[in-house]
């Protein structure tokens, strides 16, 4: 593949991630407007976008991104971030990255999202997709759902069924390159807390180092993951945002959020990648919930 092909693919991928961000932010702002005032008093919030730049380990310019944050009445805290970064991996990190052992140069773009909702009845959600170029090229990402009430953390819960069905549909539409059962199992294994011997949530799909040999098909799959998420999660929010909650349910939500913090700080590859490549600290740690308890 010549360099013009690589550059074209970088441009297409980055443009898609930024377009998806705009679509999701608009959808979330509409939900913020629509939530019932009796349960969510106050003014509807809007996303605040903050551009940032980074340097690589040598101090050379290394691209950056845009952090989009909203602290609202329905969305207690949500971040929808995009990046387009480049440079060289630090020496101690090169062996851990596919294709970087002999040539440390890299380019990466993607979208990363985490939403923590005010209502305990609305699951927290995470989604990210990315395109990475070293001496190899690949896509990665996925989406997973985290109900915060124990009685909702079952594979037969209506939100769980809807979310899994949507992710399966995204894979099945791209079945030549996206095996659903493999990516569902990968998600279950990845979003797991070994020290507690329990999953973070109810799963979804997860994939990394995805390169089938057909870039257009792999890109189409990654786009479908984003489109599918943008369809299913707003539906789940609307299905739950009219349900009142008790003080005990709020307490349960705050305790369960602690599991989210533990996973993201102890095990999450995205957190590690961002910190090791000089990413924006506020953006990286925006995945943490705004209020949490460890009883």
Give your account of this protein's structure.
- The chain has 295 residues and is α+β, with helices and mostly antiparallel strands.
- It has eight helices and nine strands.
- A hairpin with a 4-residue loop joins strand 7 (192-193) and strand 8 (198-199).
- Helix 1 packs parallel to helix 5 (215-240) and helix 3 packs antiparallel against helix 5 (215-240).
- It is globular and about 60 Å long.
- It starts with a helix and ends in an 11-residue tail after the last helix.
- The model has no long low-confidence stretch (mean pLDDT 95).
Radius of gyration: 19 Å
Uncertain ranges: none
Q: Strand order of the main beta sheet, please?
A: 1-2-3-4-5-6-9
Give the quaternary arrangement of the chains: single chain
Number of helices: 8
Form type: globular
Please trace the helix and strand order, writing H or E for each element. Answer: HEEEHEEEHHEEEHHHH
Mean pLDDT over all positions: 95
Q: Structural class given helices, strands, pairing? A: alpha+beta
Q: Give the amount of beta strand, in percent.
A: 25-35%
Number of strands: 9
> Could you give the distance between the termini?
55 Å
Largest sheet descriptor? 7 strands, antiparallel
Helix content: 40-55%
Please specify the SSE layout and strand pairing.
Blueprint: H1 3-34, E1 48-55, E2 61-70, E3 75-88, H2 91-94, E4 105-117, E5 124-133, E6 137-146, H3 158-172, H4 180-190, E7 192-193, E8 198-199, E9 203-210, H5 215-240, H6 247-266, H7 269-276, H8 281-284
Antiparallel strand pairs: 1-2, 2-3, 3-4, 4-5, 5-6, 6-9, 7-8
Helix pairs in contact: 1-5, 3-5
């Amino acid at each position: 593949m010549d360099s013009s092909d690589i550059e074209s693919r970088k441009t297409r991928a980055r443009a898609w991630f930024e377009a998806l961000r705009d679509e999701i932010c608009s959808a979330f702002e509409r939900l913020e407007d629509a939530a019932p005032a009796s349960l969510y008093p106050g003014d509807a919030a809007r996303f605040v976008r903050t551009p940032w730049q980074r340097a690589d380990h040598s101090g050379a310019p290394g691209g950056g991104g845009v952090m989009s944050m909203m602290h609202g009445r329905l969305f207690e805290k949500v971040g929808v971030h995009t990046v387009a970064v480049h440079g060289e991996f630090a020496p101690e990190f090169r062996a851990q990255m596919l294709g970087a052992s002999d040539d440390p140069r890299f380019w990466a773009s993607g979208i990363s999202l985490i939403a923590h909702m005010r209502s305990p009845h609305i699951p927290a959600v995470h989604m990210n997709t990315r395109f990475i170029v070293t001496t190899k090229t690949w896509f990665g990402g996925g989406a997973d759902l985290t109900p915060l009430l124990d009685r909702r953390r079952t594979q037969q819960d209506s939100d769980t069924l809807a979310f899994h069905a949507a992710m399966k549909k995204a894979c099945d539409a791209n079945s030549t390159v996206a095996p659903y059962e493999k990516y569902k199992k990968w998600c279950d294994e990845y979003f797991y807390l070994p020290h507690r011997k329990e999953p973070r949530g109810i799963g979804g799909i997860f994939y990394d180092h995805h390169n089938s040999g057909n870039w257009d098909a792999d890109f189409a799959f990654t786009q479908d993951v984003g489109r599918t998420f943008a369809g299913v999660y707003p539906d789940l929010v609307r299905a739950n945002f009219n349900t009142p909650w008790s003080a005990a349910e709020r307490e349960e939500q705050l305790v369960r959020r602690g599991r989210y913090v533990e996973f993201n700080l102890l095990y999450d590859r995205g957190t590690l990648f961002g910190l090791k490549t000089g990413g924006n600290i506020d953006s990286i740690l925006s995945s943490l919930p705004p209020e949490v308890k460890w009883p």
